[in-house]
Amino acid sequence: MITIQRYTPQMRADWDDLVAGARNGTILHLRNFMDYHSDRFADHSLVAMRDGELLAVLPANQDGDTFWSHQGLTYGGWIMPSKHIDPSVMLDVMQLTVDYLRAQGFKRMVYKPVPHIYHRYPAEDDLYALWRCGGHLLECGISATIDLTNRLPLDRGCRSASNAAIRGGVEVARSQDWEGYWQVLSQVLAERHHTRPVHTIDEIKLLVDRFPSRIKLFTATVQGELVAGVVMFEVGPVAHAQYIAASTRGRELKAMTRLFDWLIDHYAEREFRYFDFGISTEQHGTVLNRGLVQQKCRLGGRGILYPVYELIL
Predict the structure, then answer these.
(1) Which of 19, 28, 256, 298 could cross-link 246 (Cys pair, CB 3.0–4.6 Å)?
(2) What is residue 35's predicted lDDT score, i.e. its pLDDT?
(3) Domain containing 298 — which CATH number?
(4) Are residues 36 and 175 in the same domain?
(5) pTM assigned to the model
(6) Same domain, 58 and 155
(7) DSSP H helical ranges for the chain
(8) Which of these, 253, 258, 213, lies nearest to 232 by C-alpha position?
């Protein structure tokens, strides 16, 4: 018999064990990652139990009468092990989830499944079950992703820019200068986009301390000056680029193109399956940043969806 229960801290070890071996789990779903911003979100994560054993986990929070999976994560949804769950079981889990949420007084569920590139093994059972329960597409972001096992070459302009950056003295390496890069990043975001990083420097350093082998900073420098950088999240089979920025000098020297050229080779050699540049959409997917997505596609990326679903309860 399957039951749906609310997560409690006593379940932490079992939760993390399931995520570590799941078909679609990543470091984003480990409690050490989720709980760093527990002050911002009212956690309402769920677990599916069968005969007293953990069957699946759902990272989630509540906001009024809306149940989110999860506002503080890029993607979530039901995290499923390799064994014991097939589409028929997930259909039962999803229907029981709907019953639980209605009983708790929720009026709406927003569901952000794990995009398929992050799956260690096919894991879209939940999407079928969600549709069967009345879920529909709410919004859709699109990322640019490289299949590192079958790479497209950089276009001629990017290759030329990377070579020019090398001639200009641009050097690329992994860095521990998080404070220095956060200053560059914050300045670029303020000047060009009138915004700031989602994570503060203290928050990103906390995450790095918790996941030093999975969250890494790579920078481009010229004569010791930091001119560009990117934070890489190594999540399952995917090397995901985040917090991408270049200073004025870095843009003039084509440092970012050189940095990505180097990183793509770096992760291909380490046998990652995908290199993901992140979404290029704004306003819940209704606006496509054409210039940004074209830059990513010139480096070899092609479209991958980051969908968000809604189920009215």
Answers:
(1) 256
(2) 87
(3) 3.40.630.30
(4) no
(5) 0.93
(6) no
(7) 12-20, 31-34, 87-103, 125-132, 156-167, 178-193, 201-210, 248-252, 255-269, 290-298
(8) 213
Give me the pLDDT at residue 82, please: 86
Tokens in use for 246? Answer: 């270049």
Task: Say yes or no: 210 and 277 in one domain.
Answer: yes
Residues 172 and 192 in one domain: yes
**Same structural domain, 128 and 157:** no
Whether residues 216 and 156 share a domain: the answer is yes
7 in helix, strand or coil?
coil
Q: Residue 140: its pLDDT value, please? A: 96
Ramachandran region, residue 75 (left: φ > 0; alpha: ψ -120 to 50; beta: rest): beta
| pLDDT at position 265 | 96
Q: Which residues of the chain, if any, have pLDDT below 70?
A: none
CA angle 23, 174, 298 (to 5 degrees): 70
Region at 272 (left for phi over 0; alpha for psi -120 to 50; beta for the rest): beta
Would you state the structure tokens that stand for residue 182, as one six-digit string?
A: 């956060």
Query: Are 94 and 188 in the same domain?
Result: no
CA–CA gap between residue 176 and residue 275 (Å, rounded): 22
Terminal CA-to-CA distance of the chain, rounded, Å? 23
What distance separates the 2 farthest-apart alpha carbons in the chain? 66
Structural domain range at position 64: 2-134
Q: Cβ distance 259 to 218 under 8 Å?
A: yes
**What is the number of structural domains in the chain?**
2
> Same domain, yes or no, for 122 and 170?
no
Instruction: For residue range 87-114, list pLDDT tens digits in order.
Output: 999 999 999 999 999 999 999 999 999 9
